[in-house]
Design goal:
This protein is about 50% helix and about 15% strand. The chain is of the alpha/beta class. It has a single domain, classed as P-loop containing nucleotide triphosphate hydrolases (Rossmann fold), CATH 3.40.50.300. Bound molecules: adenosine monophosphate (AMP).
Length: about 220
Amino acid sequence: MNIILLGPPGAGKGTVSELLVKEYGIPQISTGDILRGAVKQGSEVGKEAEAYMSAGKLVPDKVIMKIMEKRLQDEDCEKGFILDGFPRTIPQAEQLDDLLDRLGLTLDAVVNLEVPEDIIVRRLTSRRTCSNSDCQAIYNMISKPPKKEGVCDKCGSTLIQRDDETEEAINERLRTYHEQTEPLIQFYSSRDCFMSVPSLDAKIVLKEISGRVAE
Ligand code: AMP
């Protein structure tokens, strides 16, 4: 089962991914998580990506494609994968098509998650992330607060507001989304596997996706 989740930052791709992971037993591949891990480790990729990320801009396609080419061939992807936050530009989508061709794979669902912009801004500014790079659990001060304020339920580490979740960075990320990522809806919309769903409740989104891929 090979699934792409499209949608602006804060559309709920991570939450829907978690449900899909449980449902299908396939990994969630989040380029954002991979890059944050690389920044934390101080690797070459991390050094290259850091400035783009904290400014709310996209990391160059070449860097992303190199990461994804390797990741999609990892053993845990044998039964499929959920792509969360990738592709993010038309060149990435075109190169992903080539890569899937080479690997003999096809897409089962390309899901666009629709959310009104005011809800996105509210969701993102109230988001807190676990500072432990091995955990990275996500909370929301409004809809999913931790049991103890400022502390991760899963590992006990401190919760932080990400650099790219300040209001200024969020506005830049939304601008970047409209310019570079939104055109992907048009790119995929003529394919049979494409679907667009309102993303207010992740469980309903899961139902819609499961219904479609079972057809
Ligand atoms: P995310 O957690 O998916 O919102 O990603 C956080 C940041 O990582 C983005 O604002 C970008 O700077 C970078 N990033 C993540 N995925 C990609 C991608 N596919 N292409 C370019 N930059 C990316």
